[in-house]
Fold:
Amino acid sequence: MSTPIGAPALLWIALLFFSPDGVAAVILESQLSLNPPWNRIFKGESVTLTCSGIHSLENDSTKWTHNNKILTVNASNWDIVNARTEDSGEYRCQQRLNESEPVYLEVISDWLLLQTSAQVVKEGQSFFLRCHGWRNLNVYKVTYYKDGVALKYWYENHNISITNATREDSGSYCCTGIIQRIPKNSTALTITVKVVPPNYYWLQLHIPLLVAILFVVDTGLLITTQQQFRFLLKIKKTRRGKKYTDPQPTPDPPKD
Structure:
């Protein structure tokens, strides 16, 4: 009787055979995200860190680290409320998979803050810029700068969306604005756009389909094996019952 291969095992085997240049490990990383997505916040603000990945049916705890120190949080979500300067630093998480890429949180005390949805962006992705006033104070006459050159001006404050990022979008960004009739400048923020190898796009297109196929195959194997197991148990019970219910042979009658 064949034994079904577990879904994680099937996934590993398929990735080893089908993923180019051994980059399958990237797909199996836990993913760490921020909500709101800004990795720079003011003191006293709040943010939620969420760890996600390829889950199994088991309820595995989540391992969190802050500046390489293990935290006592085990849930997949972690709320930082009323952030302090000490909350700044590097965060990582891990579930069943490999450890996530680091996410950097910076807690700042200032009047004006330039925020971004990601400081390191893959080529072709999008990112946002936000000129944020302390305690959500209104900011007027907002100008965004890149490498010292004015990028965009609004009388009323709006976010900037940079789509389909290229290496030319890498650089030092900042913003200026008026808060309570006083001109304010944000500190500079460096954004890096990384070139993505062609194989990355191959994985994005094929891995989800591969995972779905493996799930269907593994489910089919599991159901078939369970049916075979029930059938063998039924045969065994039937044979055991016959052993006690079949009439026993009687000796021949004596001959006169």
